[in-house]
Amino acid sequence: MSKPRAVYLQSGGPTAVLNASAQGAIETARKRGLSMYGAFDGLAGLLEDRLCDTDAVSDEAIAQLAFMPGGSFGVSRRMIGSFAEAGDDWRRLREVLARHDIHYLLVNGGNGSLGCAERLAEFERHMGYPLKVVGIPKTIDNDLVGTDNSPGYGSSAKFLASAMREVGLDMTSMGWGRVFIMETMGRHTGWLAAACAAAARNEREAPHLLLLPEVAFDAERFLAAVDDRLARFGQCAIAVAEGITDADGRFVAEAKKSEVYGHEQLGGAGHWIAQLLLRERGISAHVAQVDYLQRAGGHLGSSMDVRQAYIMGERAVEWLLAGKSGVMAGIKRIQNHPYCWDVEEVPLAVVGDQEKRLPPEYIGADGFSVTPAFLDYVRPLMEGERIPPFKDGLPDYRPIAWPKV
Amino acid sequence: MSKPRAVYLQSGGPTAVLNASAQGAIETARKRGLSMYGAFDGLAGLLEDRLCDTDAVSDEAIAQLAFMPGGSFGVSRRMIGSFAEAGDDWRRLREVLARHDIHYLLVNGGNGSLGCAERLAEFERHMGYPLKVVGIPKTIDNDLVGTDNSPGYGSSAKFLASAMREVGLDMTSMGWGRVFIMETMGRHTGWLAAACAAAARNEREAPHLLLLPEVAFDAERFLAAVDDRLARFGQCAIAVAEGITDADGRFVAEAKKSEVYGHEQLGGAGHWIAQLLLRERGISAHVAQVDYLQRAGGHLGSSMDVRQAYIMGERAVEWLLAGKSGVMAGIKRIQNHPYCWDVEEVPLAVVGDQEKRLPPEYIGADGFSVTPAFLDYVRPLMEGERIPPFKDGLPDYRPIAWPKV
Question: Which positions does the site annotation Important for catalytic activity cover (chains A, B) (predicted)?
Fold first, then answer.
């Protein structure tokens, strides 16, 4: 009798710990006697029967996934609609699954991808083909509903807050009058920009202002706040989420595009803020656009994040083998001091296609800061340093050439 | 009899290891019975008699300088002209030095600051006041003449090359057609952009193109090279120095400013390149502007860089006490495999106000790459990982409150 077989896929933007979830899933499958295929390029590869055999890869290579940023199998933003909307995709999928005798599906992704997983949990009902589907959360944006935090967020938060603390020391060296703007990811939510606040051990330390998508941008209030910080601290370090919006809910970077530059867009929210400061105050600010660096920073992963990512993958496999389907492995916080958490089953219906913004109780009354409750929330997620092996002065990542099926 | 006394100052932009040179100087002074003052904010603070007493700070606090980015004493870009040009400054300086009985000066800075040190080495001749002056090299730009490399460069090179390798993994996950642009510092020289090349272990790995100030930017050749990399590798990661110029020697970011946007400047060379790709190829590239992150990255210092920075500070103090003046501690490379180096005395007249560009033998024939000789040059400078202590998930830098004199 051949082993039962699962297929694992990675979907959406990579994180520094996405591959740690793959490692957790694969190592657990090996222990449990489950054969594990991987789909290249997420749902796209699955639908096109582009699969690989993880069983043929050495334990040593799998162990390295703990350190490696990116998505080792390849990701895509290919989604799959409901049976009613996308019946052709469902039939193609049945062919692929049947061809390889796959009856377990692991979807490691963000809210859109987990929405697909939710729909595919109905596969047996619609297609008469037994398929168990379990989700593994992943996103640096931390916007997944149903889990206290998402694997990927803690390492990006650690990268950004470390950078903010370091730049704060650099700015302080340079004396009075400096303004620095660090643009973080976060198209709709401010979790990443907010994490920068962990860098400040007192009000003098960077960052001095946060600009969050959850708070409508008001230029007058912002400029007054910059004036205030420059007067009090001689400097102003700003963390701005790429997705800040004006009072009408329009992205400021889009407002810029239409009003100032026609169709030519350069830079994003960070440069837009710099432009505003130049025009209204004559201040020439430095801008860092961290871009992909903040989600690929495997040289300084959060140990907690890596561990949670691993355990989510592990638990997802155990649940599949226990016959569960239509659920995601979620993180439940039990307490803050000391941080204590557990894994819980979350129905995919709760998670899919939803978005969790920073709640009001995490945002400071001035709209430019976070509350102590948020700092209690974020700190444990950045805890511990997961440093990869280095060779010739650089992180020694060794991409796996997954053997095609 | 009171101890002889030196004053140490930091000048120009900070680096991740500038404070390691301060540590080397201070610890050596303690061993040798030399009293060491520091000047706040470089030459500005020295001329204004804003000094601090490093002797009053604990050994434990001094030891932490090894890890701390920024310039702990504060920096400025204040320079001092020749005696003929700036006699008032020289007279003010004599008053300050005499008031504190200081007869030794340590200038830790880049080419402009070391030019000042060169002029001040003539202090006794012009002012009749005995003053020994020794320089300690510092710059992430690596553009100092007279030393094989400059402390500060290795750590920035390590940060940038690590980031490029990590982003390369992220891009590879996302499949075909991606273009990523990382803008590095380097207004006149390409040492930092070139260092990114160390990330690639083969031609498929990022970066695929380097844009260096030493090679005039040619849009047609560049676009053809992007087309080629996309066709061959499905992606194109580009490291661009902020100071690339066109055939007339104008900065492309300035050309942009005048021709396209009037007086409003957003972004720099990286965004200018992105704009070009959008206009000429319809490619929407991601841009990272690393900005201060690349020179403040104390969370991942190069051990070799930290060590060299320390030894430069140590040796400068020993030379002062041996009666030397008008020299800088320079690094002399003895061999590459294994890397072997020594310290040598370099006359400040060789160093001051000069600039070392990437030599032709380090630039690939296509103008978009570096040679194996450059990789042999840069790799040892990034060697070893100097990780600071962490607390609550972040680097635990503890700024020193230097006691004012």
Answer: 138
